[in-house]
Amino acid sequence: MNLNINFRKSVSLMLVLALGTLNSCDDSVDTNPLTATDVDASFTITPVEGAMNTFLLSAQTKGVILSKWDTGDGASVGKMNQVISLPDAGTYTITHTAIGAGVATGTASKQIVVEKTDPAKGNLVQGGTFATAADQAKWTNAKLSPSGAAFWSFGANGATIYSPGGWAQEGLYQAIEVVKDREYTVDMTVSCPSGLKETFFEVYAGTSVPQPGVEYKDNLVMGIGTWDGCGLSKFSGRLSGVGCKKNAVTNTVSNVVKFSQSGTIYLLIRSGSNATGNEPITVTKVEFRGK
Asked: Which residue stretches of 87-215 are H helix?
């Protein structure tokens, strides 16, 4: 019995001495040896053979555990080898943010010059920036909030949805002509300066005609939902990158849609909230393109 007590006392003394030695170390020493100090964000750009205006972005992988890519619409998490499509002619600045151990980061940028617009991937959305009166006139108010409690406001930065809570919501839509069995991609730039509570932002591409005062639920494509785990902190980027709502057809996070018949579909954006004090969500650069 005494031997056990003496053994415990010896172990305790050794622990005290060890902790004392650690506490006496120079405070200037980095106590997290796993933190990277120099993250290499360099990357290469390679045109994808046989695919117009499509490029493979390849990051070097040494010391990098996560990549974020920004093609001009905000950064979103991607792959080390990321394929991007730039359908419209123009000059694009591609920025890669490499994240290493301890959340250390490095950034690098390169430009891509796209000389010709891909005729097969032209944007079918009209007025997708909402910047002018002519742009705004291309959209119809869904009139989901008869009292006007939730409403959209237009400006140079896009369309902004305001909701005071209490499940107030509002939507915007426009008609688009599609071809049977052809695949299309939907995307847009979305931003909010702070995290949201009890809020949804959803995009639909349905064949049913929107009705005033009737919540639209035909063919959910993508979106943000705090119940789904996104929109909880501030965001700015393409909805395909920052959203987390599942596509109603594929049951995965996907922005691809196709239709069983040629004809008119309705691209509808609706958003609302049950919480008070949320910052508004702004959307711009809305796109609906052949894949």
From this structure: 133-136
List, for residues 2-27, the tens digit of each pLDDT value: 434 333 333 343 333 343 433 333 33
- pTM of this prediction? 0.78
At 120-135, the pLDDT tens digits run: 899 999 999 999 999 9
Which stretches of the chain drop beneath a pLDDT of 70? 1-37
CB 176 within 8 A of CB 138: no
Helical ranges in the chain per DSSP H: 2-23, 133-136, 239-242
Which residues face 109 on adjacent strands? 95
Angle at 261 between CA 258 and CA 263, to 5 degrees: 95
Domains and CATH numbers, the chain: 43-117 (2.60.40.10), 123-290 (2.60.120.260)
Q: On the CB side of 290, how many CA atoms lie within 13 Å of its CA? A: 13
The residue with tokens 């052809």 is: 182
- The residues that bridge with 265 in the sheet, in sequence order, are 176
Q: Cβ distance 201 to 272 under 8 Å?
A: no
